[in-house]
Amino acid sequence: MASRLGRGTLGRFVMVRLAATVVLLLALSFVVFALLYLAPGDPARNLLGPRNPSPELLAAIRAEYHLDDPFVTQYVRWIGDVVRGDLGTSIRSEIAVTSLLADRVVLTAELAIMAFVITLVVAVPLGVRAAWRAGSVFDRTVSLASIVGVGAPSYAVGLLLLYLLGVRFQLFPVYGIGDGGLDQLWHLVLPAVTLAIGIGALVFKLTRTAVLGELEQDYVAFARARGLSEGAVRRLVLRNALIPVVTSGGLVFAFLFGGTILVEVTFALPGIGGLLAGSVTFKDIPVVQAITLLTATVIALTALAVDIVTYTIDPRVRARGLR
Amino acid sequence: MTARRQLTPVVAAIPLVIVAVFAAASNWLAPDARVQDILTGVTPPGTAGHLFGTDTNGRDIAQLAIAGARTAVVGPVVIALGSMCIGLVLGTVAGYLGGAVDLALSKYADLLLALPTTLIALVVAGLVDGGYWVTVAVLVVLFSPTDIRMVRGAVISQSTRPYVESAKALGLGRVRIMFRHIVPNVLPVAFTTMLLNVAFALVAVSALSFLGLGVGPGEPDWGRQLSDARDLLGRNWAAAVVPGVLIIVTAAAINLLGDWAQERFERRGSGR
């Protein structure tokens, strides 16, 4: 009975959240399109570079890219194409945006996943340990480091690491992505560590606060009074404390995606972020739209996944129901 | 423990005062920051007359870093102040009035929060390319949703307090209750958020100039200095290390101060 009820509610929960996500993405796509539509600068002129084009040539290019149509027509055509999987053609390279992205998305995903794993493996245990020993030298040291880490911009940290570990001690490759496979992963270690520092500091803080919050709960005092072993108490605390850590996953992912731009530029990696930085300066609007929308989709879907996971693992959220 | 808590703001303030002096007196401290000497080009630290050497254009790294403090500090302070003004007005209105206004403002904040700030800032500032102040304006807008949310939450928790009830009973107008009575009580929290926002804005502004947006080419700026230094790592390490350390230390000092303020205000708040 309880499980059937649970599953039915979960189904409804997923449907409602999915619908909300679709609405959010549509709204975002409209904003993204409007922003780029309103942006000053003429993509047709950018395409031709410094040459002084004839009006006929400009008109021909405008017609080819539908730059003269009314706003709503352009938006509807664009969103229709997007839904069919056609993201248009890059104005700069004249390559289909989808294949341009396909070449680079793997690298960015590898970088983001590697940074994510490093963050979880390092920051969560440190946060738990710091909370167990709140006020100790260990706690104070790591907490101070996390305050520095939260504010440290990846491009500055990246260059410092690049100088120290790449140029000075030559432990890591300096630029590029290597020859694929393991070598590529090896080239991504330093960028991933750079990316992980800021977000790791955040996850550390979050974990520490969550565990400390749980340790103050009555059930901990009760469990200790009942004579449960310290190990058993800690297992209880951890199970509860990790809920907010899991739910912050969406935030972590948003951070990682925003962060890849700077890290990819710092380390000259040919990923999505580097492509975006280049496309913005060139006003390569189809590419910018596609990447912005792709990022928004990844983040929205992650948030959705996090909500569903929270809903399944946290009975309190389930009890509150749909809100 | 108390002594240590008193020590934190002092330690954090030292680098901030230094950077503020750099920013205020850069014309006087670093008169030659813009002087180029292409014939000399890159020189390593310790070269005669150049403590930290020079960059590709022969500009003195130390002077550039001192002069770069201005764009690093002024913009972020403006961003934090500006977005908090928006946050205080819209957040108070949303929190106190509730209903449709609240819903609309919250959805607006959600929409802006759905994308990473760096990404939108890059896209908007890049497409508008109007220089430093346009970038600052874009960031004011992008920073406002967190402020709106924070103020909204604080206002909601204030609205149930007895003093608001008595103001209502006295028949005071809504605007007067909101801005004369509730807002002053929200200010301590707003101040902490603003402090932390300065650090985030510093990182964001420098990030955009690192990507080649915002500050004009040739202008002294930490982010731009770092981006120029990428190709100099083997020839002049100080070109990257000096502005890099400055950004990291400044951001860390502000965060430390913000963290300390937060702890103080929260403790005071919960004591009541």
Rg value of chain B = 22 Å
**What's the overall geometry of chain A?**
flat
Helical proportion of chain A, percent range: over 70%
Under CATH, the topology of the largest domain in chain A is which?
MetI-like fold
Number of strands of chain B: 0
The oligomeric state of the chains shown is: heterodimer
Largest interface, Cβ cutoff 8 Å: A-B, 48 and 46 residues
Distance between the termini of chain A: 23 Å
Which CATH class of the largest domain in chain A applies here?
Mainly Alpha
Number of strands of chain A: 0
Averaged pLDDT of chain B, please? 83
Structural classification of chain A: mainly alpha
Task: Explain how this protein is built.
The complex is a heterodimer of chains A (323) and B (272). Chain A is 80% helix and 0% strand. With 323 residues, chain A is mainly alpha-helical. Chain A has two domains: 2-83, no CATH class; 103-311, MetI-like (MetI-like fold). Mean pLDDT of chain A is 81; it is low at 1-6. Chain B is mainly α. Chain B has a single domain, classed as MetI-like (MetI-like fold, Orthogonal Bundle). The longest helix of chain B is centred in the N-terminal third of the chain and has 37 residues, at 61-97. Chain B starts with a helix and ends with a helix. Chains A and B meet through helix 1, helix 6, helix 7, helix 11 and helix 12 of A and helix 5, helix 8, helix 9 and helix 10 of B.
